[in-house]
Amino acid sequence: MLDNFLSSIKADADRSLLQNGYFHLKNLHSDFPYLKLLESFGELADQYGKGQVWEVVSKKASAEAYNSQSVDPIGPHTECFEFQDEPPKYLALWCVRAPSCGGGKTLLADGLQIVSNLSAPSQITLTSEKLRFYSSAKKENGDPALEAIHATIEPSQRCDGERILRFSTKYSDARGLPWFTSFHEAVQAEFSKSHTSIEWSDNDLLIWDNHRMLHGRSAFEDNKRELKRVWIM
Ligand SMILES: O=C(O)CCC(=O)C(=O)O
Ligand SMILES: [Fe+2]
Question: 3 CA distance to ligand 2 centroid (A)?
Fold first, then answer.
């Protein structure tokens, strides 16, 4: 059960998620019960066999395997596009240490909105043409690298009447096909134009609808930047 304080935050978050696809809460206390609030949105999922809370920090050794753990820019994507199963409904990040270099912003744009502005034939293609999505990540240590075949837009099995967008700037096939190339160009252009930049302060919380929104990140130099991430089913 949530107390009154958390219940009112949850109600604000629900409204903002529906309206804008994300919710950004600033200036929380360092001992804010992040997990208690986030569990009220759904079940927290394990991330790559390493538990429910993932460290988004730059780690030289794993920069290749896990893009989030680098200082590199990350192009627009939805989380877990390469999973066979339904991707998490929500993603949440909270900021343990904000970067002091002016970079390292998390970028968000409404992917399903971008798609809805495409031509009707393009939208049909996105629901019918299957793509191979892949990455170097593994579900658990020792498993093969993840990959799955999906249409870019599929109906959700878990959330009635909802559609799921899957998108990866780097890790999906069919590059040669003209529809795929122009779709990717359109999304990148629109993402660059219309994204919201989240500038982090310590103890900020960000949660977004991963079935709807695209997220990315700008590059950064301050390698003390530290966020925590959860996947909510
Ligand atoms: O570092 C960020 O701002 C987000 C990185 C990312 O794509 C993720 O954690 O899923
Ligand atoms: Fe991501």
Answer: 31
86 CA distance to ligand 1 centroid (A)? 19
What confidence tens digit (pLDDT) does each residue in 75-108 have? 999 999 999 999 999 999 999 999 999 999 999 9
**Beta carbons of 224 and 99 less than 8 angstroms apart:** yes
CA distances, 81 to each of 11, 30, 70, 137, 139 (Å): 28, 32, 19, 12, 13
- Tokens read off for 204: 């900020």
pTM for the full predicted model? 0.96
Pocket flag, ligand 1, residue 82 (CB < 6 Å):
no
For residue 21, is it left (φ>0), alpha (ψ between -120 and 50) or beta? Answer: left
* Joined tokens for residue 109: 């744009």
CA terminus-to-terminus distance, the chain: 19
**Dihedrals φ, ψ of 15, to 5°?**
-65, -50
- pLDDT of the residue at 1: 76
Paired tokens of 23? 């919710």
- For 114, residues 6+ apart whose C-beta sits below 8 A from its C-beta are 186, 187, 190, 191, 194, 214
What class is the 14-106+118-232 domain? alpha beta
| Ligand 1 neighbour 53 (Cβ under 6 A) | no
State in Å: Cα 217 to ligand 1 middle: 6
| Nearest ligand 1 atom to alpha carbon 77 | 7
β-pair type (130-138, 163-165):
unpaired
What DSSP letter does each residue of 26-61 carry, written as one string? -S--TT--HHHHHHTTSPBPP-TTS-S-EEES--GG
Closest C-alpha to 27, from 226, 196, 206, 202: 202
